[in-house]
Amino acid sequence: MYWRLRFRAWRGTRPFWAGLFTLLSGLPIAYFPYAEVKIGALTLAMATTAGAGSLIIGVLLVTLGLTMWFHAIVRVFAGVATILLALVSLPVSNLGGFLIGFLLALIGGALSISWMPGVPAAPGAEQRTPHGEPGPDGAGDRSPFPGSRGGEDPNVTETTAHANGGRNSAG
Q1: Helix, strand or coil, per DSSP, at residue 103
Q2: Cystine design at 79: which of 35, 91, 109, 138 (Cβ 3.0–4.6 Å)?
Q3: Which of 19, 57, 55 is nearest to 34 (CA)?
Q4: Is the dihedral of CA 134, 137, 141, 143 positive or negative?
Q5: What pLDDT is stored for residue 58 in this prediction?
Q6: Which residues contact 66 (CB under 8 A, 6 or more apart)?
Q7: Per-residue model confidence (pLDDT) at position 111
Q8: What CA–CA distance (Å, rounded) separates 48 from 94?
Q9: 36: buried, middle or exposed (CB in 10 Å: 19+, 13-18, 0-12)?
Q10: CA nearest 34: which of 16, 17, 14, 49?
């Protein structure tokens, strides 16, 4: 039970599914050019002249999958590289491992590019209540502007010209 919870916490801090799809995409791309299928006495070899290229693409995809797991900071680079290698595998490696590896690599690369780390909630952060509803202390937010406190203007933020006494600090 403890290991399962630790794995779930580890999995939540990185693009786990992107890495898994990318890692799995490298296997058919690297394997199929070297595979031999025996049908009775007939041996069907699927070897291509670009067998070394297929092996390199497959190994790179497995490496990128592991990189997504253990170095999540480079997830965008790994995702773009995965998609590019998937596209290169179409002509080089039996249509990208008979489209199995190609599709897995495209999904993994897209998931890696789109993944964002979650923002942890600040400890002791105050929960906002909707306008007019009572808060944890029983007192409701009775200000005329939702989200503002007291007489503050809700349109004033740290980035507006009003934040520093009306002075613009752009220059």
Answers
A1: helix
A2: 109
A3: 55
A4: positive
A5: 93
A6: 19, 23
A7: 96
A8: 8
A9: exposed
A10: 49
